[in-house]
């Protein structure tokens, strides 16, 4: 089964992911936890909110890629100006909130193939 790390501080959205996505989910509520969970579980793909407490998503993307240069990370943001910055630091793609769950599934399938 595909392992997906989701870093999101909005707890209701985490609950939505749990209900809506049919993958093995690893959930993190802040940037520090996301980095820790990535190293512990080595997911197939990471979905990274860019506005996170403790450590922002841009910094976490950089640190994950330093740890694992082959990491597949998709940035998630409601802030359009952050999208290009996420791509600059190494995110594969950016998905803007709000999005359809079908869009998210397509991205997971696209980047989880080995």
From TrEMBL:
InterPro entries with a match to the protein in the record: CheY-like_superfamily, Sig_transdc_resp-reg_receiver, ST_Response_Regulator
Residue ranges of every copy of the Response regulatory domain listed in the record: 1-112
Cleavable signal peptide: none
Residues carrying 4-aspartylphosphate: 49
Domain of life of the native organism: Archaea
Keywords: Phosphoprotein
Gene3D superfamilies named among the record's database cross-references: 3.40.50.2300
SUPFAM superfamilies associated with the record: CheY-like
One Pfam family of this chain: Response_reg
PROSITE patterns with a match to the protein in the record: RESPONSE_REGULATORY
One biological process term in Gene Ontology: phosphorelay signal transduction system
Key word Zinc-finger present: no
Full protein name: Acetoacetate metabolism regulatory protein AtoC
Organism: Candidatus Methanofastidiosum methylothiophilum
């Amino acid at each position: 089964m595909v392992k997906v790390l989701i870093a999101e501080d909005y707890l209701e959205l985490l609950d939505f992911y749990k209900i809506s996505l049919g993958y093995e989910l690893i959930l993190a509520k802040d940037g520090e936890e996301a980095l820790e969970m990535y190293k512990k579980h080595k997911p197939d793909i990471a979905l990274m909110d860019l506005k996170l407490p403790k450590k922002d998503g841009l910094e976490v993307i950089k640190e994950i890629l330093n740890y694992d240069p082959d990491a597949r990370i998709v940035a998630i943001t409601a802030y359009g100006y952050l999208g290009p910055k996420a791509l600059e630091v190494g995110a594969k793609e950016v998905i803007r909130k709000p999005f359809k769950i079908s869009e998210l599934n397509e991205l997971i399938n696209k980047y989880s193939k080995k």
